Fold these 4 entries.
Entry 1:
Amino acid sequence: MKNIEENGKLKVTLYHGTNSIFMDSILEKGLGYCNPISDLNVKATAAAVFELAKEHISESILYQKNFVSFNKMIKQEVTKSFNYQHGQTYLSPSMETASNYAVSNLYGSEFVSYTLKFIEELIKHDISIVKDLANDNPDLFNLLRLRSSPILIGLDDLPISWLKDERGNSPEHNIKYLQEIQGNSYESLCKQTNFRLTSVVPSDQISIYLINHLAKRNFAYYKLHLLRSVVE
């Protein structure tokens, strides 16, 4: 069994699922430099969108299926089972988990994606007041016009000092668990183990894959195409 810690670095690959709309920023400034939640003023816009949705589209299927989770994201809640905090860069040792996240969230970030889904629903129901929000936050609304694709970022040899666990605590219990599950069942057992990145990873230390998911949200059918490898 290999030791997954060496010279203060984690010797397993960590993955981040996002979207190509953020790729230029990642290549220019590194992973973790930009925060789309604050850069796009998502929290304030989402709160306003939620109130409009509650008033005008509360009977819609989208609202009924998603309003609880969306409200928890707006409040940035952390429950016993789920972390609804956004604005951090999260990493997974599971390629499947990170890929599924990228495929499931059309705009890279879960919070951004939920907000824009609700905006689209309001537009579909001709709620004209949503145009005022577009005037207040054009950068967020402009994402609706972009064509984009899910991407997967691979990170090797990250300094452990750059990592926390998902809730911002020491990563040591995560690392200990990953050490214990080394072997044939590693991929299936590591799916729920997540890290929070606390430093910016330079772009020359990043591998980027395009995820072709063939209209299916099933990792077994995904095809990964390497767009950029680590610069030696």
Entry 2:
Amino acid sequence: MSADLHLERTPEKRTGLGILWDGFSSALIGLTVTLTTLFKPKVTELYPMEKPTLTKAYRSAIALVHFDDIDTHDCIACSACELICPSDCIELTGEKMPGSKKKRVDFFEMDFSTCSLCGLCLAVCPTDTLKYSTGYDDASGSSAWVHDLLEPFDDPPMEELARRLEERAAKQREARAAARGDHPVKKPAAPKAAAAVAPAAPPEKEGGDA
């Protein structure tokens, strides 16, 4: 076909009033969004003047839990967290307390730069003394981001700590016994000794001997 079927659409010419209406309607839509948002609750926090509100699911570097009954943590240096850590970022050592079979941690560091926050260390801790901290503004100027977990604690002497732990263990045993309904076994009272009774004297015969 020799005829050219390609049709070009000529742009629609806008008058001055049309252009004015387009600008006014666009501004009206924008102002509607602004006014609607103006009366909604604020979600912007004035950091660092205000501390952010953290959810319960927030996870930061691990830390040791402080127990009020012993006024310190309860890490027994079992190394379960160190062994299960897939990132190999936990290192700790410990020694036995005097007069006790339990160990006490004396060195506990964690490299947060390689921690994956998987939570396995929290799951295997036998004393529930590990938790996630709520740090949100940590920063490091090097590739090694090491946290000393013992830094916030000032432990009492080993003898005093061993005494507190023993008292705590005794209370826990009593609580478990009370939960099971156990009662302390009372020893049977010893039988009272019978009073020695002297045999009665034979009655005297009247009239003397025959």
Entry 3:
Amino acid sequence: MTIPILNYWFDWGEKSPLWPKDFDLIDTLSNPADLRKLGLSEDLIREIEETAAWHNTALNWNYPPDPSPWRQEECDRFNKKARELFENISKELEGRFIVIYEAGEEREDPDLDEYLKDPYNFRRKDDDSAETTRQPEFREWRISRLKRLRIVCILAVPIGLYLGLPLVWILAIIGIVTSSIKLKKLK
């Protein structure tokens, strides 16, 4: 019998860094793998989810192509923790799964200091050293996110009313109004 393979790497917004390599395993475990279906201890699952949440703070969620807010010291701490976590997962899954380390090393973005001086007007230099601007694409990205937020809020109002959860529909209405105002300003 072949031992199934799980790839280990963190992805934005995911709670699990374990990715089944085989399509049959995806049907059984999900993609990424559902940590509880792997039979991991609750302590290790909590540690994995906390590390994944920490990893999510490395992304600039306002505009993901901009530099990560992490300095090299935090990158080093995270890289060390990711390695330790990999070792712990491998030990708990030994004999049932092969876990392959595919996580890249986090590094401080060389443009971080320049970005922090003026985040809104920040421009990266591409490989040809010609300046590129983020403002038009940022605006489009922001508009699409606000439209999605407004749709989710619109859908949440009747759900909140149906379930008798006033906080849900009140927050949804606030979200609709706020996103509409911001969309009007951007257009």
Entry 4:
Amino acid sequence: MSLQSPNDQASRVGEVIGTAISTFQGQCLRLHESPPLGALVRVRAETDLTIYGIVVGAFTDGLDVGARPIPRAADGMEDAEVYHNHPDLALVLRTCFDCLVVGFDDNAGIHQHLPPTPPPIHYSIGMGSSDEVRGFTRTLDYFRMLLGERSLPTEEVLAAHIRCAATARERTVADETAYAFRVRAGREVAALLRDDHQRLITVLQRIRPTAVDERPRARLVGETR
């Protein structure tokens, strides 16, 4: 199955400013407007190659290398008022986000391993649509890639990603409900972390369905009463 992502311009959230075969970094279109942690994003590298990544972190710093932001709040002026009174901040600061590559689509189908080439620098980064998220998460082989990145808060990132993917199933009529996806994802995580109980529990606790999820509710794999 190959995924199509129409209306790329409307879904654009940033531009690639750093790239490697397994990771890429994007700069947001607007200050403080990063895609959420765990979101599935894409870079259409060529007409027949779309690279998918998961947002694993974000930060805001100065545009000038080595220039550190200084405090601007004073005399009761704080928070949003700082930006209102210093509109130049939007021109000297930037918000960026880091992504872990988890697969690609070459029009022959979805592959959940590293692509043949990295995302091109200065190419647009788009948010994965609900259809793309559902299509990419039909199989969860890429969970192993994410859990293997020990330099990241992988449990937090994976749990956030599972919540994002579940939300994609709430927004449209899907062949799998949000709750069913959480259960399936929990089982996959349980299989991968069967020898690491603490990491497993951390993920399961963070993907537990909330009061608005479907009922009746069964326990997630590995969850205790």
